[in-house]
Amino acid sequence: MPSYSLLGNDELSNERYLTNIDASQLPKISVDDPAILSLRQETGLSISELDGRVVKFLRRSLKAGISPFYRQIVNSSISKDSRVWTWEGSI
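Request: output the structure for the sequence above.
Response:
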């Protein structure tokens, strides 16, 4: 399971892998993705506050070591029937 964190605007400009890349060019991740639901729970941010923000994931690999990848959060559903995932656990 990759670890992840929400990037602030100042952190976004300091990421060497994102030099000369606009956040809108990044692959997207839905606000109802389980990782984003967890971030919402941890940060207390609303969907509108997360929309457009960037999440940094760190994936561990035996060959590559630790490699970062980034996703822009979008306010759209990942389900075709508009069901929204819910967070019912506690951390």
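The radius of gyration is 14 Å.
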